[in-house]
Specification:
Blueprint (H helix, E strand, L loop, with lengths): L2 H4 L3 E5 L3 H13 L3 E5 L2 H10 L4 E5 L7 H9 L9 E5 L15 E4 L4 H15 L1
Parallel strand pairs: 1-2, 1-3, 3-4, 4-5
Helix pairs in contact: 3-4
């Protein structure tokens, strides 16, 4: 995807590990995406009330509110339910298909920068 096309897209990056969040945000912003950051699901829901977001990249295991509960809250909120979510997890998932109704894609950490950006590109093209 061309960088100029990415510039119109805002990605919410939700990750409790500040270093990982910074790396994900930098990789996506360097590729052209606009970035909003949150440290957990509760923080993400708050940020969604402040910033229009086109896609969400989220860790699954976080304190305060994890990615699964955040995804459920988003899907239960009419004006947010359309936003595609990409899950990032350090725990290999045996049956990824179980999570597909809530998530457009799943990535196992560590993932490469190319894999992250490529997945976001693919989901943007498919859903937006």
């Amino acid at each position: 995807m061309e960088k100029y096309l990415r510039e119109a897209i805002t990605v919410l990056v939700v990750e409790d590990n500040a270093d990982a969040r910074e790396i994900f945000a930098y990789a996506l912003s360097s590729s052209g995406y606009q970035i909003v950051e949150a440290s957990n699901g509760k923080d993400a829901l708050h940020k969604l009330g402040l910033h229009p977001v086109d896609i969400i990249v989220t860790d699954l295991r976080m304190p305060v509110m994890d990615g699964l509960h955040m995804a459920a809250a988003i899907r239960d909120t009419d004006h947010l339910a359309h936003i595609p979510l990409i899950a990032l997890t350090a725990t290999p998932l045996v049956n990824k298909a179980d999570m597909l109704p809530q998530f457009a894609a799943l990535l196992t950490k560590p993932c490469s920068i190319d894999e992250l950006v490529g997945t976001v590109d693919r989901i943007v093209i498919r859903y937006l």
